[in-house]
Structures are given as C-alpha cells and as structure tokens.
C-alpha cells in the first residue's frame, strides 16, 4: 500500500505508521494453488488460496526422485527451493500458522514448466 493511503488510516510518526490487525479464519472456494516460477536450481513457488488460518508457516517440497526438502520464504506467498527439480513430479507439505499440515502429493506433474499454476481439489 502506498504511503499516502496508509496515512489516511494511520498516524505517521518518525517514519512509522502503527497498524493493529486481527487474524480471522477464512473459507476459500476451490483448491490450494501452486504457481511454479524461477529457473533451473531455483524454484520459486507461489502458494495461494489458502483457507483456514490463511497464512503459511512452513513448506517442504519433494520431487519424485528426492526426499522432503524445506523451502524458505522468499517474500509474501512465495517459497523457494535451491534444488534441481526439473522433470520430476512435485509434492508439497504445507503447514499453516494455526498448525494444520496438509500434504499435496504429486500436485505438479513431471512435465511442468515455469510459469504454470496447478490447483488441488482439497482446501485447508
């Protein structure tokens, strides 16, 4: 959000605009979406349409020829892996901030390409 918009809802003091918020559970329609971006040896996966807590605590990825590997948060809903996972189907283990964990097995097929989005049938 741009600074002028923030200043409409908050009081600007010394470069800081305090914000008070409350998390509320959300109900989403459709499944969790995984958009794979990046380049070889750098998968940047955007995970969206998260129901329940609405925010993600941790993510692990598993290729069809690898074990589970933790991903690190890049920014926002983008999680990164510095692994070579090309030509492998991908599974994700997602834990939300309320502690719920769900595994999305082989959600991304082995013929995936960067820039594509895949949706699950299930939601948190």
Automatic annotation (TrEMBL):
Q: Tell me which domain of life the UniProt entry assigns to the organism this sequence originates from.
A: Eukaryota
UniProt-recorded name of the protein: Uncharacterized protein
Organism of this sequence? Smallanthus sonchifolius
Q: State the organism's lineage.
A: Eukaryota, Viridiplantae, Streptophyta, Embryophyta, Tracheophyta
